[in-house]
Specification:
Elements (H helix, E strand, L loop, with lengths): L1 E5 L4 H11 L3 E4 L17 H16 L3 E10 L20 H11 L7 E12 L2 E13 L15 E3 L11 H7 L1 H15 L7
Parallel strand pairs: 1-2, 1-3
Antiparallel strand pairs: 3-4, 4-5, 5-6
Bound molecules: inosinic acid.
Inosinic acid binds next to strand 3 and helix 3.
Amino acid sequence: MKDLVFATNNQHKIQEVKLIIGKTFQIISLSDIGCTDEIIEDANTLEGNALIKSRFVFQKFGYNCFADDTGLEISALHGNPGVFSARYAGEPPDFEANIDKVLREMSDISDRNARFRTVISLILGEKEYFFEGFIKGNILNHRRGNNGFGYDSIFVPSGYNKTFAEMKNEEKASISHRYIALSELMKFLNSVDTSGII
Ligand code: IMP
């Protein structure tokens, strides 16, 4: 199996990505390559942040790699928290405080439309590529479920009546924004000759 570096140490993401493409690629994390640096994600778009992570790994360690950046984009909040999803309630990043802030801001709002959007940046053979995936849904006015991470407990994907946090890991991994973006990445990797590159 070919190795592919995924520029993250988020165990939830690694687990999800392994469920999705782990049969085709051996997923190598940042700690696996000895990268302990804190990568500052200070771009103002998901694309920019994903690129910061993949470029960092490529430039410092020389690996072809991919990185993702995800945001919860809520229509009534003009796309927020969006690229600010991790630190929406300030430093240090706190999933619970972030959810509390969203629920507070949405308390009088009837338009509950939102989407999770993932952007993947791939660096392969010194070239840069982007892939995107999103899933639409609704924001609840209270938490439901204990699985997952981030905003999972307040997001119900369209066509379902449970939150991501009420789904089994496999179920979320089979429909999520990350799944859709990774499927695009896989389509691309399957369409090019990667021998000698990875
Ligand atoms: P990241 O920069 O891609 O790690 O994502 C930024 C923030 O978005 C995370 O800290 C989480 O709060 C949130 N997030 C990312 N992916 C998910 C997901 O799959 N479910 C719920 N929240 C997520």
